[in-house]
Amino acid sequence: MKYMLLIYTPPVDENTGSEAEQEAAMGEWFEFTQRIVESGEMVAGDPLHGIETASTVMVRDGETTVTDGPFAETKEVLGGYYIVDVDSLERAQELGAQLPSARYGHTEVRPLMELPPQG
User: How would you write the pLDDT of the chain (119 residues) with one tens digit per residue?
Assistant: First the structure.
């Protein structure tokens, strides 16, 4: 079954650490990604640009409204995702706990819906 691991972290600012600390953190992400690629569990995954690049689109009564930024202000922001193909929810949760950001943010684990083919 496929699961999405949604990565939520505090917003990044200029106090995120030294360049060496940031490089070490990236190394952890690369190691995690390599492990799930090698295990065959990786389907997809990407980091997201910061919330300052986000826009929100809503349609109400046929009228489209576009605003800058995310819809809701929160203490944590969606920073990226992985889609994994694993045998159980427990394995998806285990992978979510292995994400480096789980130590200072949180990981939301959600199953993907499998839709029947159309046509």
Answer: 999 999 998 876 544 566 677 777 889 999 999 999 999 999 999 999 988 888 989 999 999 999 987 766 677 889 999 999 999 999 999 999 999 999 989 999 999 998 899 97
Where are the domains positioned within the chain? 2-111
Pick the CATH number of 2-111 from 3.50.50.60, 3.40.50.2300, 3.30.420.40, 3.30.70.1060: 3.30.70.1060
Burial class of 57 by CB neighbour count within 10 A (0 to 12, 13 to 18, 19+) = exposed
Beta bridge partners of 65: 58
